[in-house]
UniProtKB/TrEMBL annotation:
Chief place of localization: cytoplasm
Coiled coil region boundaries: none
Compartmental location: Cytoplasm
EC numbers, comma separated: 2.7.4.6
Record's protein name: Nucleoside diphosphate kinase
Organism from which the protein derives: Methylophaga nitratireducenticrescens
Residues given in the record as ATP binding sites: 11, 59, 87, 93, 104, 114
Similarity field: Belongs to the NDK family.
Pfam families hit by this protein: NDK (PF00334)
Cofactor: Mg(2+)
General function of this protein: Major role in the synthesis of nucleoside triphosphates other than ATP. The ATP gamma phosphate is transferred to the NDP beta phosphate via a ping-pong mechanism, using a phosphorylated active-site intermediate.
CDD domains, sorted: NDPk_I
GO cellular component, as recorded: cytoplasm
Amino acid sequence: MATERTLSIIKPDAVAKNVIGEIYSRFEKAGLSIVAARMVHLSQQQAEGFYAEHKARPFFGDLVSFMTSGPVMIQVLEGENAVVTHRDLMGATNPADAAPGTIRADFAQSIDENAVHGSDSAESAAREIAYFFTEDQLCARTR
Ligand SMILES: Nc1ncnc2c1ncn2[C@@H]1O[C@H](COP(=O)(O)OP(=O)(O)OP(=O)(O)O)[C@@H](O)[C@H]1O
């Protein structure tokens, strides 16, 4: 499996809990390197654009309100099998279903406020990374 990249967002609930460092530590222990990062308080337009695929879903309005309720920490992670490795670290979308020891089991309270986002495929990752970062903001860490 080749090195790949994925987009990670630490959502407003987890930023407010002051657990960015604990979550970064889990990425590093799993072999994922941070190759770009920035903290942003998303505008409504940015959040709606990011979640455009969910526009028709009943929870879309609440999702956008939540994602704009406070700052988020956005990072690009790089490593072997990064998309799946990161999804495994996050756990199930609904924290009630998330396996013990996953980020959502440990830090999320509900399906609406579920601590983290991670790209679900290499194709989504490419689109989501380009949504927040230019190519020259990504620092290759491959040794
Ligand atoms: N049934 C639902 N009720 C409320 N919010 C939901 C529901 N399903 C999904 N969401 C919210 O929308 C986000 C995107 O949904 P999606 O199905 O893409 O989940 P995911 O891929 O596990 O999460 P993410 O895209 O944030 O990594 C979820 O993380 C969650 O915050």
